[in-house]
Specification:
The chain has about 90 residues and is mainly alpha-helical. The protein starts with a helix and ends in a 54-residue tail after the last helix.
Length: about 90
Amino acid sequence: MRRAAEERRREKAEELAARQRVREKIERDKAERAKKYGGSVGSQPSPPAPEPGPVPSSPSQEPPTKREYDQCRIQCLLLSSSWPRNVPADG
């Protein structure tokens, strides 16, 4: 009986340690993503910014113009995992 109780305690401690490792990994991933994409992480202060990367060769580029679309195309996959053939756009 003592062995079973000790084994359960050990398994519980291992599980808690594994959960803690997963939480720490998630926090590291969040911080890396925030650093990579310029977002902010709520629970951790942002690490000091690394050296700025190379400056773009043409900083005077205008942002791309916004496109307006008047048509769209929908693709669907049949339940049999095959693509429908020759389906007209209106039907």
